[in-house]
Amino acid sequence: MEYFITKKKLKELEREHEHLKQMIKEEVAREVPSLLESGDLNPDFTSYEEALEQNQNRLEEIENVLKNHQIIKKPPKEDRNKVFLGASIILKNNKNKAEYKIVGTLEANPFERKISDESPAGRAFIGKTVGEVVSVGPAQATYQILEINYEDA
User: Fold this and answer.
1) pLDDT in tens, 43-52
2) What CATH fold (topology level) applies to the domain 77-150?
3) What pLDDT does residue 153 have?
4) Number of H helices, E strands in the chain
5) Pairing state of beta strands 114-116 and 96-103?
6) Backbone angles phi, psi at 88, to 5 degrees
7) Phi and psi of 109, rounded to 5°?
8) CA–CA separation, 5 vs 72, rounded Å?
């Protein structure tokens, strides 16, 4: 699977990757709690094992993304009048205006107004131009595209 991410997200993942590698190294180097305590399973050992496994799983996830990512770039100049991955779009719904960014699935966050290109809303906007009206969601809410902008990659 290929992951579309911004340069900013790539840097975040690289920092997290290095941090996790260091944490795991330190965890492995310290004294491991004993497996049994008074004949019972030692809860400290269980916590140690779970934390180590969780960090190793996250490290593997990040390594997979780092091996299979593609940086989101501006489309060619002649296509910047259309919504593609990386576009910031200003929409109007009734009298309300809002700005959203079309991002890859790893960066999607509705609270930050970042819409995944693979979500139903993201797919509805891809390829559209300024002035077009797009229907989104089960209620078929309509949004008119007022502006399309691309930041420098």
Assistant:
1) 888 898 999 9
2) Chitinase A; domain 3 (3.10.50)
3) 53
4) 3, 9
5) parallel
6) -100, 125
7) -160, 105
8) 6
